[in-house]
Amino acid sequence: MAMSLSNFVAPIFLLLCFSLLSRAATVTYDFNVEWVTSNPDGQFERRTIGINGQWPIPAMVANVGDRVIVNVHNGLGDWTTGLHFHGLFQNGTNQMDGAMGVTQCAIPPGGDFTYNFTIQQPGTYWYHSHVKGQYPDGLRGPLIIHDPDSPIANMYDEEVVMTLSDWYHDEMRPLMADFMSVTNPTGAEPVPQAALMNETQNATFAVQPGRTYMFRIINMGAFAAQYVWFVGHTMRIVEVDGVYTEPAEANMIYLTAAQRYSVLVTMKNDTSANFPIVGSMDEDLFDAIPDGLNSNVTSWLVYDDSKPLPAAEFVDEFDPYDDYELVPIDAMPLLDQVDYSFNLDVKMDNLGDGANYAFFNEHTYVHPKVPSLYTALSTGSEANNPAIYGANSNAFVLQKGEVIEIVMNNEDPGKHPFHIHGHHMQLVHRSEDEAGLYEDMNVTQADFPATPMRRDTVLVRPNGNIVLRFRADNPGVWFFHCHIEWHVVSGLVATMVEAPTELQSTLDIPEDHWAACRAQGIPTAGNAAGNTEDLLDLSGAETSPDPLPAGFTARGIVALVFSIVAAFLGMAAISWYGAAPLGEVAMQQVQKRVAESGVET
Ligand SMILES: *[C@@H]1O[C@H](CO)[C@@H](O)[C@H](O)[C@H]1NC(C)=O
Ligand SMILES: *[C@@H]1O[C@H](CO)[C@@H](O)[C@H](O)[C@H]1NC(C)=O
Ligand SMILES: *[C@@H]1O[C@H](CO)[C@@H](O)[C@H](O)[C@H]1NC(C)=O
Ligand SMILES: *[C@@H]1O[C@H](CO)[C@@H](O)[C@H](O)[C@H]1NC(C)=O
Ligand SMILES: *[C@@H]1O[C@H](CO)[C@@H](O)[C@H](O)[C@H]1NC(C)=O
Ligand SMILES: *[C@@H]1O[C@H](CO)[C@@H](O)[C@H](O)[C@H]1NC(C)=O
Ligand SMILES: *[C@@H]1O[C@H](CO)[C@@H](O)[C@H](O)[C@H]1NC(C)=O
Ligand SMILES: [Cu+2]
């Protein structure tokens, strides 16, 4: 049919309509989210969140232009749930973005909820729960959008999906409770027990000599970034986070949690040996390395399954491709006329409950009583006032069409991968480690790349800084957060409220969304406190704990906890402080932080 039509000299719009009509399909998924058991590292069987009785959960696959319907039933019984489709713009369907407490109320146990959106972009994505702390329990899977007009289609023979992840033997809810606790004043993140590839270890990818495969590599981990390399083979990077790039040769790549790369790998012409594919967790992220942790995971390119699977040799140093060097093939120029620039300064500190929180500009994120999208929809022109979303929402109101610049200073010695919903961001500047504040760096726009790399998840280095730009061309309430799930838990989150008055006249919230809120008594109108009369009255809003009492410092808490731990270990029991016994790993972490902080012990 396409052949015969191409014989006509048809006006371009007719061809366009034809191609849309002929290609667009509706892809429907019925997902029952429920507990299953799994043992992906072969060390420990545990309860895991699966779909329709299965884990790993299925890959979602669609074409650009398709409508996707996901009917979700929450069969967990003991936890709310929901799905976010990581990286999708959801242009015109912000209410389907799946950010819990922001664009919808979470789906209560026993509840049903339908996501319904069209796909506007090709590339490698993933879907996961956006209920706080939930996806590392298993609710994370690939989302692949095929491109009927792919500019790289002729560069490879076959595509292969390969996921990376990290794995905890404990469930997230107890881990979160321990993490956000006075017994963990330094905010040491729980270290995973294992690295996984394709949610397992020792996976084998059967390959044929001479063929070129496009590996779509997705880091679905909670915390760990991974270095990845193919022993004996080189990669050509052709896509990051849904952005096609000029092919870039690489021996090793680095994927933070939530990042994706498509790489072309051409096989050798002979089948005399098989080769490891190695993933190695970035141990810099971990405050302490637990005894027995194997931070590496191996899969194999199998040319001949009668031949051995050789162990990977260790590499001496990690020297991954720097994604800042990538150039999008659409050559989208630097957004050089900034309309609205603001800072997000990252810091970690203790609050009055002794736990360690993460802050943007002195505010740690706390979910408002009313999901911010519903605040935007129900407050008329006052929706343009960031104050009504609550101080702990870290809300920024962006006007339609503006070029937005985010200057991020990481005043923390950790690496953080920042993700924005609803957009790609140009990475116009990234400092090295320990560079300090951007404002002190004497960098100007003349130093920025002419065609900056864009992606939806961007690494900022320890005590370094980055500058990000994007155009506010997608009305919606979009989450912006660190994609280390521990830092979502500790509050490293902001809210981009984009063109709220336009949203009021364009968005239509389906009945099942309201029903999810009703079932849990969550208000759906008014400011962050649920006040619909005086929108500037935020009394009753959710806030963070008070600051530490004067005279207390994080160092003091570390010393205090350390002495408790020491006493605990020495005396077998101590209860005056109510401190739970710390595990060996936590103990090591406390010791390491104490050593670093210089507190005498
Ligand atoms: C993968 O192989 C290694 C080395 O033989 C082994 O230690 C590990 O337990 C295996 N993992 C699984 C999940 O079977
Ligand atoms: C999905 O949304 C479209 C457009 O609003 C609507 O026509 C369709 O009925 C919806 N489908 C489902 C299953 O909700
Ligand atoms: C890896 O996982 C992807 C996505 O679930 C699947 O399509 C692929 O077949 C898996 N490959 C192997 C070798 O397990
Ligand atoms: C494999 O053989 C083809 C055809 O002879 C050649 O073009 C290609 O360079 C060879 N590839 C490798 C990796 O040697
Ligand atoms: C993991 O791999 C890295 C790099 O090859 C190596 O330095 C490290 O020792 C390995 N870790 C273990 C536990 O084997
Ligand atoms: C800032 O950079 C400009 C251009 O490279 C240079 O001329 C100037 O001296 C620098 N200023 C400082 C304070 O380093
Ligand atoms: C959203 O759609 C509008 C209208 O088609 C378009 O101008 C804009 O670029 C889109 N935004 C994104 C992020 O795709
Ligand atoms: Cu972080």
From TrEMBL:
Residues 1-24 form the signal peptide. Keywords: Cell membrane, Copper, Glycoprotein, Ion transport, Iron, Iron transport, Membrane, Metal-binding, Oxidoreductase, Repeat, Signal, Transmembrane, Transmembrane helix, Transport. One of its GO terms (molecular function) is ferroxidase activity. Its main location: membrane. The chain crosses the membrane at residues 557-579. It is a single-pass type I membrane protein. Residues 33-149, 158-304, 365-501 form the Plastocyanin-like domain. One of its GO terms (biological process) is cellular response to iron ion starvation. Pfam families: Cu-oxidase, Cu-oxidase_2, Cu-oxidase_3. It is found in: Cell membrane. GO terms for cellular component: high-affinity iron permease complex. The keyword Metal-binding applies. InterPro entries: Cu-oxidase-like_N, Cu-oxidase_2nd, Cu-oxidase_C, Cu-oxidase_fam, Cu_oxidase_CS, Cu_oxidase_Cu_BS, Cupredoxin, CuRO_2_Fet3-like. The keyword Repeat applies. Belongs to the multicopper oxidase family. PANTHER family: IRON TRANSPORT MULTICOPPER OXIDASE FET3, MULTI-COPPER OXIDASE. This is Cupredoxin. It comes from Lineolata rhizophorae.
